Automatic annotation (TrEMBL):
The lineage of its organism: Bacteria, Pseudomonadati, Pseudomonadota, Alphaproteobacteria, Sphingomonadales. This is RNA polymerase sigma factor. Residues 115-164 form the RNA polymerase sigma factor 70 region 4 type domain. GO terms for molecular function: DNA binding; sigma factor activity. SUPFAM superfamilies: Sigma2 domain of RNA polymerase sigma factors, Sigma3 and sigma4 domains of RNA polymerase sigma factors. The keyword Hydrolase does not apply. NCBIfam families: sigma70-ECF. Belongs to the sigma-70 factor family. ECF subfamily.
């Protein structure tokens, strides 16, 4: 546990000099300029909270990682999220020390794995998941868009998400996965 004086010293000597670059990073990756100052404060708060257990060895990399993760979390929590905004944040190259980050590579692998899982779903099921989870449509809106009943949308969503979760977790033996795979084979 880092004492308050040491934490204050670390913040003043190592974090504050990064403020100009951090502000530029936030401005470049966030659409609303009115949120920049608040985002900076939230990032500082998260950075200090994380550094209480042990000061990071690479402050710059640590601060930019905290900033990137916070911006992604805020974008995901927003009621209306532009797919381009998430894609832009996901593709941001963070300063040198983060380029080979294991977490970054792991997240990319998970995203590729999710895409592969989606591509294995039947076309209608994939459309329903895309409209509901990515486009943010309601069940009724998705049903109207596809010309099917809301019950069918719910069924496709349940079956598809279950199959996708099984794919992501490598559990093909779960009861619902073979049903979806049989369903896919029948529809071809």
């Amino acid at each position: 546990m880092v004492d308050d004086e040491e934490l204050r010293l670390w913040f003043c000597e190592e974090v504050l000099p990064l403020e100009k670059g951090l502000m530029g990073y936030i401005r470049a990756n966030w659409r609303s300029p009115h949120d920049v100052v608040d985002l900076r404060q939230e990032i500082y708060e998260r950075a200090i909270t994380g550094a209480r257990s042990a000061l990071p060895a690479h402050t710059r990399a640590y601060i930019y990682t905290v900033a990137r993760n916070h911006l992604i979390n805020r974008a995901r929590r927003a009621k209306i999220v532009s797919i381009e905004a998430i894609a832009d944040l996901e593709s941001v190259i963070v300063p040198d020390a983060l380029a080979g980050s294991e977490r970054h590579l792991s997240a990319r692998d998970e995203l590729r794995r999710a895409e592969a899982g989606l591509n294995q779903l039947p076309p209608r099921c994939r459309q329903v998941i895309w409209l509901r989870k990515v486009e943010g449509m309601s069940t009724r809106e998705a049903a109207q868009h596809l010309g099917i009943s809301t019950h069918t949308v719910e069924k496709h969503l349940t079956e598809g998400l279950r199959a996708l979760a099984n794919f992501m977790l490598d559990y093909p033996q779960v009861r619902s996965a073979p049903k979806v795979l049989r369903w896919k084979a029948r529809r071809k």
